[in-house]
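Hi Y.,

Following your request, here is the sequence exactly as I used it, all 350 residues.
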Amino acid sequence: MLKHGLSIAAAITLALAIFSIIRMQPMTAKSAPPVAPPSPPTSAKSIGAVGLVESRSENVAISVPVPGLIMHIYVSAGERVHRGAKLFSLDDRDLQAELALRHSTLEVAKARLERLRQSPRKEEIPPVEAKVREAQVALEDAQVQLNVIEKVKDRRAIREEDLLRRRLTVNAAQSRLEQAQAELALLKAGAWQPDVEVARSQIAEAQSQVARVEADLQRLVITAPIDGEILQCKAHVGEYAASGTLAQPLILLGDTSQLYVRADVDEEDAWRVRSGAAATGSLRGNSQQSLALRFVRAEPYVIPKKNLTGDNTERVDTRVLQVIFALPGGARAHPGQQMDVFISEGQRGR
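Below is the corresponding structure, written out as tokens. Let me know if you'd prefer a different format.
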């Protein structure tokens, strides 16, 4: 009896262990996904690709030619702007002060040239003419004194030294007269042409300095390079704007009058893509709506893959051929959205 009892207890224990193990197994329940995954068209073979919606002009990242402090912002996200419209401006106080200095230098140069053109002043001529008359009178007086001493017949009555002195006096008076006459002629001749040319060159140099400062001022006002929509505005008054390529652009601008989708086709399937191929696409989260896409172009250069979806089976070490398609008008899409694109192998788009 004891032997049979042990066997029965062992069998019961084994059954309870098996039952416990079965109870502890995880239960898996099949559930439908919240959003149906995209499915390719069944009428033809297609190439799957992941696309990113962008503007027709591509996204233009606005930067600054020189670093500076942001003083004014003239636009906001979502606003449409025309080419040449002001976006924001940098601190220009130092350049404004320099511009005022350059304008002063220009005015001085212009005044110097005008003074040369107006010379001689009519008030300057009478004093010089008076000096000429004075020199003439002095010469006549010296000549009279010389004539008086030369008329003395008895040379013993005069000294030879006095005669020589009076002759030298006449020569000196003659030189002073010639000098006064030359000064009068120079004054009446007006400005010397080389001096005028020098003054004109100084004006041109001053104007160039003004133009340079004005050009620097214009560089501090950042304007829209194209007609488009402000997609992002990360610039703020009081922030320091650095020049060069930024991880976060100050302003993102694009022409959204026509939206494109840039589809990344893996390099293994790149050979299957034909120019003008028909394609369909669906926005992420709305796989039930399929949009007909129009082929625009394919980028000639195959680049490393950057647009990742997060799928566990996705390869990140591959290269992709970028194919651009145009979305139909009225599509409720936004730049930056992802799309699932299926490119037909056999058909060509219209």
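The chain is about 40% helix and 25% strand.

Thanks again,
Q.
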